[in-house]
Amino acid sequence: MPNASELSNQEPLTQNLLHTKSLSSRANDYPIILVHGLVGWGRDEFLGYRYWGGLIDIEDDLNDYGYETHTAAVGPFSSNWDRASELYAQIKGGTVDYGEAHSKEHGHDRYGRTYEGFYPEWGEMNPETGEINKVHLVGHSLGGQTIRVLTQLLAEGNIQEQELTELEQLSPLFDSEQESLVSSVFTISSPHDGSSATRLVDGLFPMTKDIIALAASSAGNTDSILYDFKLDQWGLKRGVDESFEDYAEKVYNSSIWYDTKDTAEWDTSPEGAMELNSWVGAQEDTYYFSVSTEQSYESIWSGHHKPELFMNPIFYLTSSFLGGYSESGDININHDWWENDGVVNTNSMDGPTLGSSDEIVYYNGNPQKGTWNHIGEFHSVDHLDIIGIGLYDVRDWYRSVADLLGSLQ
Question: Any idea where the Lipase-like C-terminal domain is (predicted)?
């Protein structure tokens, strides 16, 4: 397995960089759960255009390759706590419980949607193996933070929820009596230390609102599920006879963009990430992997990083901002933060460091539990290329990821 410096000599996404064992040497059959990032969508949205794969479908490809795989669809702008609560219900089945204490603190509904469950036997004893049924969690961008939060809550619960909630009403997600249910956490281009893009244009959500407005204007009065904001807990559920245009306008004008930190905007800021890192740690019985991406170059004139020619043009503005933004304070943002993939600072992707005691090592073919195994950095790969929305066919690479996860003991 090459280290990060050696990856610079590889053509991006054209080789199996993981060098994992073959399918015949699989050590587990745990399902793989794909978790999208900010602005992401489910498989029944966006007219069938996939978040994971674009015109192809990574979920279908991995299932055909022999790995049970499911694609989650959690709140695209929600906090990692809310997204983790939704992810738990989607995997296990049942009604989303955001927690009594959390919901009261932030002023939204405690319960959300109800799901059949991708894997209802999750957490039960497997009669064939005599072991607990686990899952592999794969998260892109914000999804990497989300799967860390879910793994933390499953392992250690939450004392505030336990103190405020009657025992018979407490979600298993928040108790502290669960067996280890997550075999591995695999993060891709994730802002573990936040992204300085949240400093742009007075924060990320004014840009988010532009995305909402664009989606509304593109959809017109269609009744189809073009995009689901999944903000039911905030009273922003789409009505039965409500057009998508009216639904998007209702979301656009909501006060949640300004009145709460219980959103992705806070979690993806450096301060929000540091706060999250202070209570979300690597669990000793879970494998942690990270992959980094970049598509910027250092200017010989200014030393700032500029977007490479073939970066997706929608990222030129944010990449240029990330490539030269500095500030001093409780968190010092300097030239170490300038390399980027158009959305996230590359130095934020290898694992949490701000407010965290987690250890990060380069993966050498022998993964360690409870430690971040940094697989390396893809060069000339932007934030969407890595999920198949861009220049590259990523199917072989995701198969190699599946082989790695399937080889874990």
Answer: 28-396
Amino acid letter, 97: D
Cβ contact 378:11 at 8 Å: no
| Band of residue 239 on the pLDDT scale cut at 50, 70, 90 | confident
How many residues are present in the chain?
409
8 A C-beta contact, residue 373 and residue 367? yes
- Ramachandran angles phi, psi of 301, nearest 5°: -90, -45
DSSP state of 188: E
* Tens of pLDDT, residues 47-106: 889 999 999 999 999 999 999 999 999 999 999 999 999 999 999 999 999 999 999 999
Q: Measuring CA to CA, which residue among 370, 388, 375, 318 is closest to residue 20?
A: 375
Q: Tokens standing for 75?
A: 């709140």
Please name every residue paired with 94 in a beta bridge, in sequence order, or none if there are none: 115
Q: Give me the active site residues, please.
A: 141, 341, 383
d(CA 395, CA 282): 28
The 3-state DSSP class for residue 12 equals coil
What are the angstrom distances between the C-alpha of 252 and each of 4, 77, 301? 41, 12, 41
Kindly state the tokens that stand for 393.
């066919």
CB 77 within 8 A of CB 39: yes
**Cβ atoms of residues 390 and 312 within 8 Å:** yes
Give me the helices (H) in 295-351, please. Answer: 316-322
Annotate 110-173 with three-state secondary structure.
CEEEEECCCCCCCCCECCCCCCECCEEEEEECHHHHHHHHHHHHHHHCCHHHHHHCCHHHCCHH
Structure tokens at 100: 């009594």
As separate numbers, helices (DSSP H) first and strands (DSSP E) second, the chain gives 13, 11
- Structural domains of the chain ordered from first start: 4-192+261-295+335-406 (3.40.50.1820)
Q: Is the pTM for the entire model greater than 0.90? A: yes
Which SS3 state, helix, strand or coil, does residue 65 take? helix
Q: Which DSSP category does 240 fall into? A: T
Beta-strand ranges (E) seen in 253-359 are: 287-294, 296-298, 305-307
Q: Is 43 helix (H, G, I), strand (E, B) or coil?
A: coil
292 close to 374: Cβ distance less than 8 angstroms: yes
Q: Which of 116, 47, 66, 20 is nearest to 403 (CA)?
A: 20
Please say whether the beta carbons of 347 and 339 come within 8 A: yes
Distance of CA 148 to the CA centre of its chain: 9
The SS3 assignment for 176 reads coil
